[in-house]
Amino acid sequence: MFKFDFPPINVRRNPLAPGTITLLFKSKGILWGNWALDVSVILLILPFGLTMLCSERDSLTDYYYYPDNIKRHPSVCTVYPQYEKHAFSDISLEALRSMAQPLIHFLLLALFFHCSWTLAISAAPILPTGWSSTFKCIIDSSTSRVLSGRSFTSGSLTLDQCISTCDQGGFLYAGAEYGSECYCGNSISTANGGGAEVSASECSTNCTGNSQQKCGASYRMTLYSKTMAASPIPSGWNKSFCTIDQSTRVLGGYTYKDNSMTPGNCITACAQHNSTLAGVENGNECYCGNTVIRAYPTKDSDCRIACAGDGSQYCGGTSRLMVYIKVLAPTAPTGPDAWTLKAGGNSGVLSVMTHVAVATNDTMLVIDRKENNPLLKADGKPAWGAVWNLQSNTARPLNLTTHSFCSSGNFLSNGTLVNFGGHPFVYRNGELVSDGQQGVRLFNPCPASGNCDIYENPTRIRLTSNRWYPTSARLHDGSVVIIGGMTIADWTNSASVNNPSYEFFPPKNINGYNGLQIPSQFFKDTLPHNTYPHVYALPNKKLFVAANNQAMLLDWEKNVETRLPNFPNGQRVVYPMNAAGVLLPLTPGNNYTPEVLICGGSHISDTLRGEQINAQQDYASAQCSRMVLDSNGIAGGWKVEYMPEPRVLSDGVLLPNGKILIINGGRTGVADARQDYASAQCSRMVIDSAGIAAGWKVEYMPEPRILSDGVLLPNGKVLIINGGRTGAAGYANAQNRIGDSNADNPTFTPLLYDPALPVGQRFTQANMPTSNIGRLYHSVATLLPSGAILIGGSNPNDDMQTRPWASEYRVEYLNPPYMSATRPTYTGLPAMVNYGTTFSISVSIPASSNSVKVILMDLGFITHSVHMDQKAVELVSTLSADRRTLTIVGPPNAPIYSPGPGWIFVVVDDIPSVAQRLMIGTGASPPKDDAAIANMLAKTANPISGPHF
Fold it and tell me: Which stretches are transmembrane (predicted)?
């Protein structure tokens, strides 16, 4: 018969894990038959079969038993009442103490009767004051020890004994190895491969004095450190990306080694040598430079060697360089150069806005998904489309009939907005929404006071096949090409659901395909990540197309694909690793030569499945790749720059003054979560023969970004906004998700890129406001006729959710400094301007102005970080002697600006006017081939015939 002798139980809160309790026994022992525990231990009594043992250093996992819920957590058990949903932090210690001993009694008695319970001693050591409970398993070199201060061997070694001995000796680090060896030191040596962190499972040898503790293994050390205040990163510097560093160094400037190395020390040294880039490697090495010579970005977890000068920080890895970049840090916006952010109401549409297109001076089309949206149609059912009033910040519901989510859109030459493709059928809220994957939806914009609506007729107007996540572009004849996508919704593409083709609206009889889709080898070669490609119509009538880490020129009139150099460093730029992309402004000064800029995305391997991507740790890319699309530019390849931070799912906005605003997105994930970091790379290419010969130019943003938007501004700059730093696009796939979001670590501060400045000076966040709204998957940003930038959306969920990251209804307006300046005005704009024709407008501009430009812009159709048809073209103009009249020449030809609606900004000394809408061309409808339409209808199925996938 068992005899139970219960000691007093000390109940403590754990400061490292708020809301938890620890049961600490201090007594002569607990008697269980003839077995006694005579030491002070943390004791957990757990019912086998009903719950799990709180194991050391395990992932956060939930297990339930009556009456408590225990979550495994490093060194502690988190205890919550199962039926009351509040944590133990809401219960007084007195109450905990009164309930603890009866609880232990209950568990031990149940153990006796069920004969299936386990008594376990926690492996967590009792730590001296100031020591961190977090440990690492690291490699110890066979020729030079990682810790060289003091060592001893004991046949009864415990972690407690080793750490206490090192602490009493005044050391900062304690390491246990091979079960019986203890080492102390004040710095970590990385000589001969030592110091690198490995999986905790490699430290698998039981301590000789406590079999529940692990004391390293052969040349593997269980390392604890005394908590130190990490040396701060100097102001104005950001961590950017981890990269493979080989014989050709990533940074080629000043370098040194130091056994007191920290990132802060390295950055300080590089700053003293006038470097804008700093990198730490191998624990004790520092490298400086002003340009990245050659980078092969890799996972952030590859840069996990402890710094020789501070084991709580990481200093790169073996042949792995952690790069830091200098950037003008965001400041509180003040003075005439301040950008401002203001609230813009509530859209009333799920995700606020997933697809948007500015339609008139005061309205914008919004399309979303059929879900539990608060905006209701006249029949009382939730709407999934709306007209947004830019003046009143209110929404008027539209009456779509097919599921328009995950679609594309463009204006035709006659001004009709057409929405292509979409989502499978869905039944929600008592309403069946028909399959929209072959959908074609027409919308003729009207003033805010009007009642214009969506027109659909799938029996006569449809696509040839299902297209989920396609991209489309307006062509020089006023029609639209629809490219790529999938035949069914999935996290990413595969051969079984790929739609490697393109088609036209209205259908064309071209290249032997009479009204039907035309196959594309490019969209077979770019699997699996090739949906929502970046597509730009070029002045030579061809299309620039980017998918995965590849790019091509498509001569759609001849069905010829010309491959361009791949994006440098494995930068992946489309869903689910969405990068911000723009076609830089076309001007008479650059002879209307196209140059493409792609910023952010991810360097994550495209062989990984969604569940293998870490939402919190897989970084986005900070790379910007740029190429002039002529023969010389393409031959030279992509030119690379780096953003101040990685971004994914962000947007690039071309401003009226020609600058580019990069906004939205996050730092991690793909369109999925927290730790897989986005890319900070920007790739840029001039798309002519010289530019293609020169290839991609690569820059790096100050931080990685994924899911961002690139918005062209009227002054020629680019705004990069929205998105995050880690993870990927999509939801409910990745590891370590926040709610369902595959991405995390939102980038709250926009980034401005000036393509005219020298490399190293193009990015700034100075005077940029910081939002408190995370804009991740399904967020948008667009330039408005006023010159402000509308920001909306974000919904990485299957339906409306309030948990992080929540379905986001709030709308914001970002106002560049020119919004508060004295702005030029004009009158007399004709409603229609044909190519090469001359017209005049009356202007009011400051007498002291120097530069006067006229910018024609297409504000585009925006969704999923893709800005379809976004374009800026500078028109030839002459200012009269009295400075009151501008004589302007229409665009030279249709390939430079496709016929259809446009917006005219008059930009004076970088300050744009409010834009006015006009039609470019004759306003005629695009060519219509009745025979091609008839053949398409005869050989394709009517998608409205019934719900199907």
Answer: 32-54, 106-127
Question: How far apart (Å, rounded) are the C-alpha atoms in residues 537 and 519?
Answer: 19
**Which tokens in the block code for residue 878?**
């002459």
For residue 584, give every residue at least 6 positions away whose Cβ sits within 8 Å of its Cβ, in sequence order, or none: 594, 595, 596, 597, 654, 660, 684, 712, 716, 718, 755
Q: Which residues contact 734 (CB under 8 A, 6 or more apart)?
A: 610, 611, 613, 614, 615, 669, 670, 672, 673, 674, 676, 727, 728, 742
Q: Are 720 and 680 in contact (CB under 8 A)?
A: no
Domain coordinates in residue numbering, the chain: 4-121, 136-225, 237-326, 355-819, 825-920
Q: What is the pLDDT of residue 68?
A: 30
Asked if residue 647 has pLDDT above 60, the reply is no
Please list the residues that pair with 513 across neighbouring strands. 510
| Residue 198, strand partner residues | 137
- Tens of pLDDT, residues 528-551: 999 999 999 999 999 999 999 999
| CA atoms of 144 and 193, how far apart (whole Å) | 9
CB 677 within 8 A of CB 688: no
Closest alpha carbon to 744 in 723, 769, 721, 722: 723
Q: Enter the pTM of the model.
A: 0.72
Same fold, 355-819 and 825-920: no
- Cα–Cα distance, 726 to 619 (Å, whole number): 4
- Please tell me the CATH code under which domain 355-819 is placed: 2.130.10.80
Residue 765 has a pLDDT of 85
**Rounded to an integer, what distance in angstroms lies between the CA atom of residue 215 and that of residue 290?**
44
- Classified as helix, coil or strand, 108 is helix
Beta strands in 616-761 (DSSP E): 618-629, 638-642, 647-654, 660-670, 672-673, 676-687, 696-700, 705-712, 718-731, 741-743, 751-753
Tell me how far apart the alpha carbons of residues 6 and 43 are, in angstroms, rounded to a whole number: 12
From residue 837, alpha-carbon distances to 221, 461, 852, 898 in Å are 77, 35, 20, 15
Helices (H), 122-225: 159-168
Residue 141 backbone phi and psi in degrees, to 5:
-70, 145
Architecture of domain 825-920: Sandwich (2.60)
Copy the structure tokens of residue 681. Answer: 């790379």
Q: At 63, is the secondary structure helix, strand, or coil?
A: strand
